[in-house]
Amino acid sequence: MTLQRSIISDSAPALELHDVSFVRNKRPILSDIKLTVEAGEHWAILGPNGAGKSTLLAMCGAVSHPTSGTVRVLGAQLGRVELQALRTHIGHVNPRHPLTSGLSIQEVVLTGLTGTIDRPMRWGPTDAQVRSADELIDLLGLAGKTESTWPTLSQGERGRALIARALIAEPQLLLLDEPSTGLDVAAREQLLETIDNLDSTHPHIASILVTHHLEELPTSTTHALLLSHGRITMQGPIQQTLTTDSISHCFEHPISVTQHDGRWTARAGKAASSPAA
Ligand SMILES: Nc1ncnc2c1ncn2[C@@H]1O[C@H](COP(=O)(O)OP(=O)(O)OP(=O)(O)O)[C@@H](O)[C@H]1O
């Protein structure tokens, strides 16, 4: 653990991408990506299908290397550190979590400490780790469900359990890949509230959330990056970035953007030249 701690820097930005490109089968998937995410910032990556959002998130999660350019995650440069060790500092919430066995919520949360999908053989949590799992389960509104098993959980409960799983390893960077996928409106709202609460319970965590839908942005989102055909079309503080013009340009369709009580709405409409109200 001491060795793993030493590969990251507490004072570095959570993420720094310089002139990043990613090429597959001679096809550019990402080009000219520049991005800096500081501790405590909450970014959203938005863009149409195939824009490269998941590919970008994979790099931010130390899952893949860039073809060119540099990516520093928590101060550690990809290519110079062991990705597996770096990933222990990153909480990655994937709603398509490939668990098939009947682990309890508590056991699922504890797998966040081992970085495995299932419970590893010959590994047992300490009492303190079990307490920490139970505290997070409570924090995410799942108290009383600790013993419920994965196959019996609703999609919304799974989403919240996966956030608890990501948080148990005390990551400095939290990646949320379309966390509202498959949720009904009530479950989505509960999940967004949960994510908003992290801002006060875990104020130093930086987060990146990928979504297609402006309606799925938590009110705590501070910044946005718009991606189209593998290129950034706009990025910066959310108020300046999510506008009718910028979203219409990114999605190549006239879309009217409005904001009310910190939540965003997008509707087909005429692209106007003024920023979102
Ligand atoms: N390993 C790969 N080999 C070849 N092409 C790939 C690979 N991974 C992704 N792509 C292509 O790169 C492009 C971007 O894919 P990516 O999944 O990152 O987009 P996305 O914005 O997340 O899309 P969606 O919103 O549909 O999930 C797509 O055209 C995809 O087909």
Automatic annotation (TrEMBL):
Tell me which InterPro entries the record gives: AAA+_ATPase, ABC_transporter-like_ATP-bd, Metal_Ion_Import_ABC, P-loop_NTPase
Q: Which domain of life is it from?
A: Bacteria
Domain annotation ABC transporter: ranges = 15-254
Q: Does the keyword Lyase apply?
A: no
User: What's a Pfam family this protein contains?
Assistant: ABC_tran
Keyword ATP-binding belongs to the record: yes
Gene Ontology molecular function terms on file: ATP binding; ATP hydrolysis activity
SMART domains for this protein: AAA (SM00382)
| Identification of the protein by name | Iron complex transport system ATP-binding protein
